[in-house]
Amino acid sequence: MITRTITISLFVFLFVFSQVVSAQEEVKIESIQVTDQIYMLTGQGGNLGLFVGQDGTFLIDDQFAPLSEKIIGAITSVGGDSPKFLINTHFHGDHTGGNENFGKRGTLIFSHNNVRDRLRHGSYIREFDMKRSGVEDIALPVVTFSEDISFHLNGDEVHVIHIPHSHTDGDSIIHFRSANVIHAGDVVFNGFYPFIDVNHGGSIKGMITGVKKIIALSDGNTQIIPGHGPLTDKAELGNYLKMLETAYERLRKLKAEGKTIQEAIESTPLADLEEEWGDGIFTGDKWIGIIYSGV
Questions:
Q1: For 238-276, how does the pLDDT look when each residue is reduced to its tens digit (9 = 90+)?
Q2: H or E element at residue 193
Q3: Would the pTM of this model clear 0.90, i.e. be above it?
Q4: Reduced to 3 DSSP states, what percent helix, strand and coil does the chain have, rounded to the nearest 5?
Q5: Hey, what CATH topology would domain 4-242 get?
């Protein structure tokens, strides 16, 4: 179970998207080795994926702009160099805040079409009153795709797959086929209720579909890097899926009965899930208030 200290940190890291906070001076980028060539990097914001090899360094997401040099330091410490390729799993600032810095270094940035649109035109996260202006051209993805794209490098086939209307409308997961590793982006929040950005195309139903896709690509040895939380696997992901499906069915029934958001909250439909899943970013009541309109 995630501790309350981590709860507070996750809240800050997730939703102070493009602001410089003093705590960033003390942030340490940690490298967790997943395979000989793949690492999960943690710091402030979403978990990064790193793939190093003779064909060049491949980076998944880039957290906040003030952390870019620390991220480069972590990359070089495990034998990588300035990233040749960077893919954004979605548009939120704790995953794309470093785009400008990496773009200036010559890194080629990739994303789903909708990610580029959100970054270009700016966004507003209503639930947290967070406004982000459109980014400079150097921070925009140069290559975009609608469904999927593959990279053939460092002895592996890296398949990037769009997961429609899940956490947002532009999410992608990254499957390292030979290494048997999946970076799930924010389709997976390991150990707690996930933020679902309904106002930017996300939905709990889409999250369920996305998790099922990840499970279908996995076996008992697959290592899964979540957008937030510790490294996970297929078995744990099955528990996360069960929670999402249970919540969806209960909320769908309440909505079909014509219950308002407040009435749904007052009926406490997630009470039995709270101990295991409600100690992360949101309590069940808060989570219902965020996702109910998209059920």
A1: 999 999 999 999 999 999 999 999 999 999 999 999 999
A2: none
A3: yes
A4: 40, 25, 35
A5: Metallo-beta-lactamase; Chain A (3.60.15)
